[in-house]
């Protein structure tokens, strides 16, 4: 199983949207996928579960990380993939530091849980909070690779600079093999001066991180907002749209990254 953390330490960068489309796009390609919601806002959970009701007292990611429930006990089946959900009824994940802060292996909890089910899935996709905290470091420690979404705006690119230190710390202490798959430009507004300038800045940051910007940006599209309002992914809502094509290209690039790594390892 390949594990992908979708990370940016600034809000509004498109992490959850990217996570939804990546999980759905991999599943559309026939891969077995488990999605992991590590954001207390539970937006990934809401989108993937859709109209399905989440039992109020069902164990979630919080109970998994605290050791109160096993990965099998928290797993939920969604239409396209399986899900380790956050709670839609409370925001207990926001206080996870208080619950596991004294545990010596606190950064390895998600990694250990995913290892227990690795044989069932081809990919795990982790949505992360916009913070540098125990949740984010659990995701980076569990991941084989990181995808960094960035909206074509300065504040979103600032999040990439902040993230570089977290990746360095993760590689030094908990996950030396963590790779950066690439930077994904989202909400791209065509050939505007701002978009071109942000793309150039992103390329410079990617070079400094030893990675790249994905060749096809994700265009700004009303269909994405509309699909979110319907609690579904773009491949279900508007499969023939241009933005669905953008995300399919992104999914293929991610799969290609791991295939290339496997070839080099042989």
Q: What is the helix content? A: 40-55%
Order of helices and strands: EHEHHHEEHHEHEHEHHHH
Q: What gyration radius follows from the Cα positions, in whole Å?
A: 17 Å
Strand fraction equals 5-15%
Contiguous low-pLDDT stretches (5 residues minimum) are none
CA-CA gap between termini: 17 Å
Short structural summary:
47% of the residues lie in helices and 13% in strands. The chain is α/β, with parallel strands linked by helices.
Report on this structure.
This protein is α/β, with parallel strands linked by helices and 266 residues long. 47% of the residues lie in helices and 13% in strands. The protein has helices at residues 15-28, 43-49, 61-66, 71-74, 96-100, 109-116, 134-142, 154-173, 193-209, 222-229, 234-237, 242-265; strands spanning 2-6, 33-37, 76-77, 82-84, 123-127, 145-151, 179-186. It has a seven-stranded mixed sheet with strand order 3-4-2-5-1-6-7, with helices on both faces. β3 (76-77) and β4 (82-84) form a beta hairpin. The mean pLDDT is 90.
């Amino acid at each position: 199983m390949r594990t992908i953390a979708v990370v940016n330490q600034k809000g509004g960068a498109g992490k959850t949207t990217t996570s939804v489309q990546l999980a759905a796009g991999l599943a559309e390609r026939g891969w077995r996928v488990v999605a992991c919601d590590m954001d207390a806002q539970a937006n990934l959970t809401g989108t993937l579960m859709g109209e399905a009701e989440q039992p109020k007292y069902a164990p979630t990611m919080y109970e998994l990380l605290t050791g109160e429930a096993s990965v099998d006990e928290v797993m939920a089946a969604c239409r396209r993939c399986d899900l380790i959900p956050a709670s839609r009824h409370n925001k207990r994940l926001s206080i996870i530091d208080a619950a596991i802060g004294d545990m010596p292996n606190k950064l390895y909890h998600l990694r250990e849980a995913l290892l227990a089910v690795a044989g069932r899935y081809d990919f795990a996709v982790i949505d992360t909070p916009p913070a540098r905290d125990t949740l984010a470091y659990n995701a980076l420690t569990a991941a084989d690779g990181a995808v960094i979404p960035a909206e074509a705006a300065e504040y979103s690119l600032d999040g990439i600079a902040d993230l570089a230190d977290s990746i360095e710390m993760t590689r030094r202490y908990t996950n030396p093999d963590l790779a950066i798959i690439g930077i994904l430009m989202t909400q791209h507004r065509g050939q505007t001066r701002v978009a071109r300038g942000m793309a150039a800045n992103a390329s410079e940051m990617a070079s400094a991180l030893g990675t790249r910007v994905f060749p096809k940006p994700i265009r700004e599209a009303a269909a994405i907002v509309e699909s979110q309002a319907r609690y579904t992914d773009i491949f279900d809502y508007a499969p023939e749209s241009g933005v669905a094509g953008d995300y399919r290209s992104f999914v293929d690039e991610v799969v290609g990254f791991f295939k290339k790594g496997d070839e080099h390892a042989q």
